[in-house]
Amino acid sequence: MIADALDILEIEPGPPPPEVAKELQWFRDMLAGKSADELMVLALQSPAVHFAAFVTIRDKDNREIRPEPNVLQLRMSKAYETLRQMGVKVRIICVKPRRAGCSSFAAHIVYHHSQRFRSEGITISDIKAHSQELMEKVSGYSKVDRFPWGHRITGDTAYSLAWDNGSKWTVDTAENPNAGVGGTRHLGHFSEVAKWPQTTVKNSEKTMAAVLPSLSGKNTVCIAESTPEGAQGWFYDTYCNAVTLDQFIEMHAKGICPEEQWVKVFAAWWEFTDNRRMEPVSQVEIDHFKETLTDDEREGIEIYGWSWEQIGWRRDTIRNVCNGDSRVFKFYYPSDDVSCLSSDNRVPTKRGMIPVNEVVPGDVLANGTVLNAFQSGTKKVGTLETKRGFRIECTPDHRIALADGGFCNASSMVGKRVRIMKPVFAEENHVQRWRGFAGASCSLEINDQWGRFLGYFCGDGSLYKNQLSMVMDERDSDVVELMSNDCRELLGLEVVRRRPGSAHATELRVADHRITELFEELGILHDGPCGRKRLVAVPECIWRSPKPVVAAFLNALYEADGHTRRTGKFVMFHSKHKRFCQDIIVLLLGFGIYGKLRPVFAKLNGKVFPGWTILISAGYTESFYRQIGFLGSRKQAFATAGDNLKNNGRPPDILDDTDEVVSYELGDKDVPVYDLTMDSDPEFCAGGVVVHNCWTASGSPRFDIPAILDMEAVAKRSTFDTGYLVTQPNKRVSFSPVRDGSGEIQIAEHPMDGLRYVVIGDPATGESQTIGADPDRSSVMVLRDGYHDRSMNVWRPLKQVARVKYPFYGDDDIMASHMVRLSKYYGHALVALEVNMGLQVLRLLRDSGVPLYKRHPESFKLNKPVEQYGFKLTDADQRRYIIEKLAAAIRSREIEVFSLDTCKELKNFVTKSNGKAEAANGAHDDDVMCLAMGWEVMPSAGTFRLLSKKDHDPRDLRSWQRVRNMADLF
Fold it and tell me: Which of 92, 559, 948, 952 has the most C-beta neighbours closer than 10 Å?
């Protein structure tokens, strides 16, 4: 038996990649020539050896074979063996391609461990059927295992398994939010964790928080694995904070070993030997591949060395398995796990060039919309710099866009050319807000004048002991007057002019302690040897400003520290601060102006002063003068002088959208790192350089994200009352507010005379009621139709003015009572109920007497329209129709909401790869459907009218009249 087990290689599909070949060959060499006793000793310690030598499995063609572990299984086994030898808890987390044998081998590891040691284990998968399948694998290993453990199965049911050595196994499901609560266990296998439910009641965070405490012993083993399913949830967060096995060994050697530290294991699809064509690709097909290579394929050849057989297999899989969609292939067959950027990088969005850690889903970039923005743990990052001065900080494995197509790891980019992308600026002026003395709310809008003022301060300004100083060349009287006026108008203080010593200059001085306080809030000061002083850097408010403000900033900055030749051909800027110059280059790129960063060494009085110069060559000076220019007329006049000069036969230096990488230096500290997922191209701009995004998302936003962001901004500023609607003895409904926020109803706008209202209800679907742990939610809201506000002479769009507090899990009678009271409070407003799952609610509403929306579908039996209560979607086309109408209304800014929960649902409503528009995984769409129905039925709504009492004579009117008449007699 042992002799037969030594011959374990039965399938040889072709040569694997070189690094993988080394791993596989090392495993084969380890087994080669071993005696039966030696093999048993190895199998006792190594799940991979035991798997290869003593177990038979069925392959993809249902043939019984003696398997060879693939590269992912070998890495999993190596991690398990190493951590066991180190005497620490085994915490392994794996990202896997589809059909990689990861789940099967994880089940084998825990089976192997339970045979060596008396253990209690649990398997939790996304659904119970998958959990049971994995337990059947554990049971199957016991039945085909030829290793002489001496243990037999004593109990084997659909939910549990036991051996006579005392080891026990149970299964549970992520559908149960209390899975694995209580007890003491030694083994845990958590499968497809990224696919676990993500709702309020049950989600991966809660489930893992419930089960992990039962696996707290020193010798416990936990294996979590999944295919990627979006950048969210416990699996993603844990994987991002996990370390490689080598990193863990290094941490352990330094005495840094957190008890619950997870070790990540990953293998890309191209590392598997059977993910390739079995037969060599013909030359004819190779020629066709070369003519039709995609960017992803060029990247794979450049970075990973894909063979033509792998490209052929990839195309076959995309066509036959992934519905012809390469995005689906990348989702289920990842090429890498996660690489990322440090928070020091800026990403140009329509909110400004903001740090990557501030980017949120929905932000609009130059090449698309952000679907996910997330922290990827803490890692060592390096600084990549280009020849012209662009700079980004990223992990060594972060992929950078190559100039000729494809991507390359940052650590391998030296000498290669990268792609440069023109950044976008903010759309609106930035408003700086802060809390002043005694909690006063302060705000300052950064306009063009402030941009000019800050530009000159960063160039030739200073601050010492609450005294602001700016120095100008005395020849530039127009600059002196302009900056003097700016100081007076912006700061509201008198300006003192003086001539500093014998210099041919004019100094402006303004003194007040409030200047220091303001500059502190603007972030343009830092600690110096003599106190707070000017920070030479692009102010944060300028990064977040629109193009005109940035142009004013650069205009004044170049006036202070820039100069040009009298021919006007070249424009230069000088500073001793390299990072400041690199930031200026990024700002110039936003205007389509390419600068070159060069080191310079100035000599003065026998001393050498190093510094940096940004050179704008002749090809871009005309654009510089036109869009930015100098502040004063003296320097700006050189632009006219250069227009009439010949080029002496030398063509202008026009640069393309590429640059050469000159260095990549890795740091020694772990810093927080972040990454983005885009809705279109898998790339975005960071610091002017195009980089790759790294985690697959599960859909693209269906609604116009900029419009939703505007809606969300309004919602954040909105105020609303919270309380209860109370039915009075006279049957009228009044609103009773509460101040602690505990009420059931939220009202942003109370009813107004002459306006139209409709109450919308979307009942729970009931789909999750079969489980009982996470009942589906309902949504009830009131919409007010758009109207012309005559007092302000503006149009007010359709608005969500009231709602039952989110989330609402009430029963049918509670939902109906809320809708009845809302209808009466808003003047017997029309009530529209989605009746697919709300027939009981409909009956209660009809009995209450409120006006109900009626539809008029065509009756095929009667061959005419019939009247029916409620709103009903009979097929997918009708659902798509109302979603399309809602999308158009949102895009044209015809809807306004006050609920941030509604905004969140709108942002998480996506078009998936199958073309269906629905809520993203783990999200809800109740509010979305309410808005869609409300927009559809609003033309049928009635008008609210204030009820006014009739004028009645008082009961004692006649008595008063008699008294008055009698008084007249006297």
Answer: 559
Phi (first) and psi of residue 482, to 5 degrees: -65, -45
Task: Please state the rounded mean pLDDT for residues 811-830.
Answer: 91
Give me the mean pLDDT over the 565-587 stretch: 88
H or E element, residue 891? helix 876-891
What are the distances in angstroms from CA 40 to CA 35, 753, 917? 9, 87, 56
**Axis-axis angle for helices 102-116, 128-144 (nearest 10):** 60
Mean pLDDT of 546-553: 96
CA–CA separation, 38 and 762 (whole Å): 67
Closest C-alpha to 541, from 521, 567, 566, 513: 521
pTM: 0.57
Domains of the chain: 2-270 (3.40.50.300), 276-331 (no CATH), 341-421+671-695 (2.170.16.10), 431-643 (3.10.28.10), 705-940 (3.30.420.240)
Task: With CA atoms as reference, report the closest residue to 236 among 713, 695, 554.
Answer: 695
Nearest residue to 377 via CA among 94, 93, 91, 673: 673
Per-residue pLDDT band at 9 (split at 50, 70, 90): very low
C-alpha span between 468 and 84 (Å, rounded): 65
Structure token pair of residue 184 = 């003491």
Average pLDDT, the chain: 82
Q: Which helix (H) or strand (E) holds 168?
A: strand 168-173
Q: Mind giving me the DSSP string for 85-96? A: HHTS-EEEEEE-
Q: Which helix (DSSP H) or strand (DSSP E) does residue 760 occupy? A: strand 757-762
How confident is the model over 926-934, as a mean pLDDT?
A: 91
- Report the pLDDT value the prediction gives residue 798, as an integer from 0 to 100: 94
Instruction: Enter the DSSP assignment of 203.
Output: B
pLDDT bin (cut points 50, 70, 90) of residue 713 is confident
Distances (CA, A) of 397 to 243, 372, 381, 411, 724: 14, 20, 10, 7, 56
pLDDT of residue 864: 74
- Unique residue bearing structure tokens 């980004």: 392
Terminal alpha carbon distance of the chain: 136
